[in-house]
Amino acid sequence: MENVKCLIIGGGPAGYTAAIYAARAAMDPVLYEGNQPGGQLTTTTLVENYPGFKDGVDANVLMDAMRAQAVGLGADIRRGSIKEVDFSSRPFKLVTDRKDQVLADTVIIATGATAKYLGLPSESKFRGMGVSACATCDGFFYRKKDVAVVGGGDTACEEATYLASLCRKVYMIVRRDVFRASEAMQKKVFETPNIEVLWNCNTQEVLGDASGVTGARLLRKDGTVFDINVDGFFLAIGHHPNSDVFRDWIETDEEGYIVTKGKSSATNIPGVFAAGDVQDPHYRQAVAAAASGCKAAIDAKNFLK
After folding, report:
1. Fewer CB within 10 Å of terminal CB in the chain, N or C?
2. Containing H/E element for 26?
3. Same domain (yes/no): 101, 62
4. What is the reported pLDDT for 253?
5. Position 1 confidence tier, pLDDT thresholds 50, 70, 90
6. Do 185 and 134 share a structural domain?
7. What share of the chain is helix, strand, coil (3-state, %, to 5)?
């Protein structure tokens, strides 16, 4: 059974950045990348809002560069996931998906969050080709085009109004005849002239061709089936933080996001820290995740001192 100073769980911007800082701090970090090396960002294509790339950067290129930088500084990055944890005492005890046991003096949780999708085969087919779960990330590519947003909560309304500032027209596909969103967010939608709300509608199929999304086929509650022509199809039905394996030990909010103390990355367990989307239900941006990974590594280093 090996013993490490700093174990990082998750291989997205938060995890890789934590590994970079922990390696430079001589903490000899070990990082398990999980089932999606590179994190959620790798489901998109060109990233235009990450600082330092005036023409944007391919998401996979960016993540590969972060990973290579961490490895070059001495981080031990491994394939695989953490399936069991015991945070009852230090060193913490963790078990991988290969049943390997690891003891860790500090742990940084950077497992991210997973966007919720409708589960349609056509939705999966066009993911990254017009289907997106992040309007802030991908909205720029649909300037002066028509798009659709699925959802009726605050996030959907926020993303629809954001897209409306860029796009020619935004359809909101809402499965009920009312919004779940707050009155303030509803007011913004109703006051935005290029948003059209399609009530009592469910998506049957995302339509497209070799170039990507071309539309969506909708089923109205009364049985009517009709198509809309759109270039982008945005999901805004929520995210699921990847925190389930830690919930017996780590404090989370009602949605499962890990609660951190004040402006730090510290959790309710001394020596366990959280970074990135697993503890951030608000921003969900690569640069914000990277920054929180930096904080977590510094907090872990200070804890060991």
Report:
1. C
2. none
3. yes
4. 95
5. confident
6. yes
7. 30, 30, 40
CATH number of the domain bearing residue 221? 3.50.50.60
Which stretches of the chain are DSSP H helices?
13-24, 59-72, 121-125, 135-138, 154-164, 183-190, 286-304
Mean pLDDT across the chain, nearest whole number? Answer: 94
> Nearest to residue 261, comparing CAs of 276, 279, 243, 277?
279
DSSP symbol at 225: E
State phi, psi for 45 to the nearest 5 degrees: -115, -95
Strands 2-9 and 30-32: parallel
For residue range 25-79, what is the model confidence (pLDDT) as tens digits?
999 999 999 888 888 777 766 788 899 999 989 888 999 999 999 999 999 999 9
In which element (H, E) is residue 131 found?
Answer: strand 131-132
User: What DSSP line would sit under 51-118, residue for residue?
Assistant: TT-TT-EEHHHHHHHHHHHHHHTT-EEESB-EEEEE-SSSSEEEEETT--EEEEEEEEE---EEE---
Residues 25 and 110 in one domain: yes
> Is residue 288 domain-shared with residue 229, that is, in the same domain?
no
List active site positions: 134, 137-138
**Can you give the pTM of this predicted structure?**
0.79
Task: Say if residue 22 is in the same domain as residue 122.
Answer: no
Tokens, residue 5 = 């100073």
Supply the range of the domain harboring residue 249: 2-114+239-304
Percent of the chain with pLDDT over 70: 99
Q: From CA 108, how far away is CA 94, in angstroms rounded?
A: 12
SS3 204: strand
Task: Give mean pLDDT, residues 248-267.
Answer: 96
**216, 252: one domain:** no
